[in-house]
Amino acid sequence: MLVGQQQRLQEDIREIVAQHGHDRSALIPVLQELQKRHTTVSDFAMQVVADELGIHPAEVYGVTSFYAFLRQPTKGRFVFRLCRTISCELGGKSRVARQLENDLGIAFGETTGDGRFGLEWASCLGMCDQGPALLVNDRVYTRVTPEQVHQIIDECKSTFGAHARQAAHS
Amino acid sequence: MIQVNSKKTPFTFDSIEPESGLRAALGMSRADIIGEVSACALRGRGGAGFPTGTKWNLAAAARVKPGGAKYVVCNADEGEPGTFKDRVLLAEHADMVFEGMTIGARAIGAPHGILYLRSEYVYLRPHLESVLARRRSENLLGKDIGGVAGFTFDIHIHMGAGAYVCGEETALIESLEGYRGEPRNRPPFPVDTGFQGQPTVVNNVETFAWVVCILSRSASWFKAIGTKTSTGYKLLSVSGDCREPGVYEVPLGISVAELLAKVGGEGAKAVQIGGASGHCVPASEFGRKIAFEDASTGGSIIVFGPGRDMLAVARNFMEFFVEESCGQCTPCRAGNTKLLEGVEMLERGECSMSYLQELLALGETMQLASKCGLGQSSPNAFVSIVKHFKDEIMGRTLAN
Predict the structure, then answer these.
(1) Taking a C-beta distance cutoff of 8 angstroms, is the pair B160, B180 a contact?
(2) How many Å lie between the alpha carbon of B311 and the closest alpha carbon of chain A?
(3) What value of ipTM does the predicted structure carry?
(4) Does the structure show a pLDDT above 90 at A168?
(5) Is A164 on the interface with B (CB under 8 A)?
């Protein structure tokens, strides 16, 4: 990482911590905000957060790796999380999963080469009456069919550009 | 796109006058509020069924440690597979949930409230924040609520980060404090030593909404519904093989067969009651009652139609627990992996009856020796499916 980038990240983290406070209970909200802005929480970022909160970096790593939405193996601008729990399975999630892999060209747990899309499994999304359910960043799609997958990816692509960050998290 | 509204029956909540429960509570002493909640025998709607009045009474009597204050926490970490009633409540009856939290605050003397919202429901947050802001402007939150001098209470929202185990109240508190969501040893209980070491009441979303109804109507109204030990109505989230999946309000004590008739699930082969941590009830037992003393559920009802492979169901549940075990205690961390391996052996038709018996014994060990509810209940689905569907799962060949 370039020194300039590191400095920017550091400043960003200081700003986030100033908002949420230096108490340990601010750790998860800080990590969530950081991830929202930078799509991932890097080792360097964890170190800075630890310094800011006055705790050991291993503590920050321990928390980040514990929570599914923080540890996030993928780094895409758009994170696709397909529910794999029972009602969505009964509703046909396996075919949606296959089509997601086909249309994105990656397997679950991977990120596309251009850094645009990440594909992950999710445990129950609480949309069991309308499965299969798919969460794309903060947006839920329900009763997803294999043929809709392409359209959902296109929707993301059309919002990717100058205003991508706002669109991705709106 | 998303349809938040999944209501399939009218809810009692629709017919309750807004703020009538809070108004009644403001005219009552703390002891009387807790007395009402105890008298109606309301039990926690998250699934464990602990008596709400008892919980509040303990928290009210607990002493605040120097420099702190008590907390009221609403558990909106609705992660049990097959449950989505709290999503509907938060989307459509958020005021009533916050009103219930305010009554709880009044009862135990807490100035702080926290809504712990699962990250999967992050899209509900803007709506919930706007409801909170409006309540502050209407003096239903903040200082001297409802004109009662000295009654100060406010609520903030804290997001979860994707961990089923955080629905367990001590894991939830760990998460609130910025730690891994690993359940604590109990005692001490949260009512005495909870968030930041202070007395804390953690209740389910639905529990708070019922408190409002009880104070608005009466304890005797609520108690007249349901069975002797499971009073009142319950929201059920119904999914799976039925014509009308969605959220139903039913009196506790309703039989599985009656429920199936309502939801268009006649002819089902089995019903999973209580989600992944619950039990699988076969058609021969559809006369059982949905109540704390019989087939107990926090709201999850999953219907399996005649063509479903029950071993595939067991596999899905075991995969869920292998993923969601926090890994802190061995029975749960290692046990769930062993049970999943057992399911895979059954799939390949390579499991002897004596090994299956060993797996069932392992299930018993997990139920007895795991530290929290997750590990204690994780073998339930496997054990009940093995018990009722041996014919279907033994001696498989790859062809079937």
Answers:
(1) no
(2) 12
(3) 0.93
(4) no
(5) no
